[in-house]
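Structure, all two chains, one model.
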Amino acid sequence: MLSSLAHRALERAGLGEVRDRVLEGKRITEEEALRLFRCPDLAALGALANHVREARHGDRTFYNRNVHLNFTNVCVASCKFCSFARPDDRQASEGYTMPLEESVQSVLRRKGSGITEVHIVNGLHPDLPWSHYVDVVRKLRQGWPELAIKAYTAVEIHFFAEKFGKSYEQVLRELLDAGLTTLPGGGAEIFASRVRRKICDDKATAEQWLEVHRVAHRLGIKSNTTMLYGTIETLEERVDHMARLRALQDETGGFQVFIPLAFHPEHNMIGKAFPKPTGFDGLRTYAVARLFLDNFDHLKAYWVMIGERLAQTALSFGVDDLDGTVLEERIYHMAGAQTPQGLTEAGLHRLIRSAGRVPVERDSLYHVLRLHGPEGAAGAPRAATA
Amino acid sequence: MSRIRVAAVSFLNARPLTVALEDSARVELVLAEPSACAALLERGEVEGALLPVGALAGRDYEIVPGIGIGADGPVQTVVLVGEQSPAVWDEVYLDTASRTSVVLSKVLLAERGLHPKFTPMPADEGVPRARGTKGALVIGDRAFDVKANHVLDLAREWNVLTGLPMVFAVWAGRPGVLQPEDVAELVRAAREGMGRRTEIAQAFAREKGGDPERYRRYLTHRLRYSLGPHELSGMETYLAKAAALGFLPETRLRFADDVVRSRRVRRTVSLDTALQKGADGERLDPDEAELLDEKAPLLELGLAADQRRRALHPEGVVTYIVSRNVNYTNVCSTACHFCAFYRPRGHREAYVLDRETLGRKIQETLDLGGIEILLQGGLHPDLGIEWYEELFRWVKRDYPRINLHALSPEEIWHIARTSQLPLEETITRLVAAGLDSIPGGGAEVLDDEVRRRIAPLKCSTDEWLTVMKAAHRQGLKSTATMMFGVGEESRHRVTHLTRLRELQDETGGFTAFICWTFQPEHTRLAPGDNGAHAWLRVNALSRLVLDNVPNLQASWVTMGGGVAQASLHMGCNDFGSVMIEENVVSAAGTTFQMDAEEIERHIRDAGFAPARRNMRYQRLAVGA
């Protein structure tokens, strides 16, 4: 139930009609999404998004326990926002490529720690053979049969297809045979070609990115999706990005979650020109995404990037999923993220509970593994402090 | 009224807690060894005891809140000694006098991966045998004189390991036995004892020989007698580690004032009604405020507060000030344990700013377009009113354009006390010397139930409000603050807000309210303690309850710019100050920083027009 305070605030903000459509469960238009973005009343916008979030998930807030594997940062692409990529393996350039066995062991040594997923994303390495990528997946699958392997962004899949002369389907089938579980959502950035030309003109285009996911969904592979906000894109371009995702989701239903990513300005080519997007921008982006992407189950905040405090706040602005315990994250930390490496499960529970929510551990496919009901000592979940 | 009997050790470290009980009409003191104190309490021969923390394990004893004996760094009187390094010890002789230190020794050695054989033995036999691969534990006053190649100070080791203080002993009683009057008497005695530490040191030196100054430093520099959130975390961590290693049974701490608390019977009020009343600017009573604090969802509180903010500040302007926070001294005799900033007098990091440094800071502030300095400091025992008067006159003479926003109520009390002046006269003289307004710091939670626990040696709620009232009467404006998330409950926060509101009705002297969460770096947090969610809620609630305070400042320094932006849509209308320096919060590990440009970007991005202001919250025509 949306409260009368929220009703009136939305009316005052000129969003009465949008509110009514949302409450009737109807889809909002791109033009309406833009109006939501421009809504001067963050609390009212948040209340509407929160209404949708609670109708879908109640107080449940999902997380998983995962480890990241970024086995190389050597990359032939030259995305302007990236602080992670290096042109080659030389030590002087801080480039690295982990040998196959080391990559595999870095994950396998976590066995028994309760981790359920590995997230594998890399640079576009000019020399690694196709077998390397397949072998990483295969060896992980053999060494840890129950581990979910979320590997290779659509940008990497496209790169493999071009470099090794295969179709997207061939690439994905071989990875699937080796043991792949899902695709991560990275590399989407902003779909608009104006933006892509300026910030990432030498990797998969929007159409190619979407096609990889379309093929994956057809093969039964679930995937995630992202949006990099806070560089040169306009609000219209953000809405366009989400509209293309919504359309593909209508077609396939294969997306599990939408993850907005804030641009991090340190140690990359355009950081000087663009300050980090503010928390306000993040919160309204989450809220609009929750309202616009009506065919997406989940909306995720990546606390590594926006900090634990803003991530906790985002739980009232439409977000129902927090990135997990995240061990070994490198990409955002090389861009200057100040957040700690890894949050303990207890820390994550505390963060979720003290926002009045219920922590739910999920697997890679969003099945509930464990529901962590209110803790005795935590008392009423909505109380401000213990 | 019958007297209760309490047992305590005769060690030097206990005397500040016991000295003022010697002539108590309420409490009779029985002296004993540490382990004997526990035994006397166990057998019911005494009602309370100064109990080694280890002796709480597995019992349901109730702790007297606010006071204890601990150390946050080396303590000198609990040490492991040996001829060789502990790494090679195969046997350790454990002083039988204290189980707490015995367990601490085992925990600390186990944390280093060392598992020697432990043999109980009185210290006077153990120490001479601590040769070769043998070590020995020495506790109490005899540790002052022990000489050895390797001395491991267990409080320091504990501090290095956990980042927390080690608490050695607390007053505790059997369940339900200690009455509020007994608790009050033990706290009173501790307060008095704090002021008699020099005298205690001298008496001890006459009794046992040794250097009185060394003993005084031990009592004033090494030991900490408050039991605040850090100490509680230290205690809990100690008990948890000892339990995890199987040295002690598991324990849940209980406090003497947790039980038999008569609760106000609350009226039934509807959440919607309370929210609507708040949003419409009607006065909320404490029942309604508590209900909102406990039950209202964040965004509902936020929407109601936003409606109030729009009514009070309809222009969509968010103000900020260019000010510099200068801490003129870090010497402080209060030793609040949520504070990571203070140093005792004589400490190698202790300082009092000289004029040259202060002048440079003021000039830099002016150069950056600043108009104010926020001047605060510790409670330095040697600085009387003349020092402040001269300082203020000098500032006003050399920098006439700068506003002096200075001295929290605690400091004003301190100056009055040190200079033996009435409060009114102290304020009059400070104003005459150039004081323009006063900051509302040190309020923490204005409820003595909470204050006793987190800052027992600080001024009381009434004292804090008395200073504000006196200052407002003389035409000074001030801010008001609240630091929450220290284990208080809804009713305490609501009491805080309603007491401020009452005084504001009377004086109208508060310009703004600012709240922030306790910054507990290195402590184990209770759920929700310092989160953004809790902070946004308390801000919104404050906007609704403080219907007569015009401005609400967003404390972005502790929460970060993004969460502070959200608060602008949930009750706040001011973005605080550009931070040129802020020692106290940064000492506790908070690192957010913004310059004027970044503050304005945040304000604009959140949909408001930025404007600079002065301390009276008047907008300045231009950026100064």
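DSSP finds 15 helices and ten strands in chain A.
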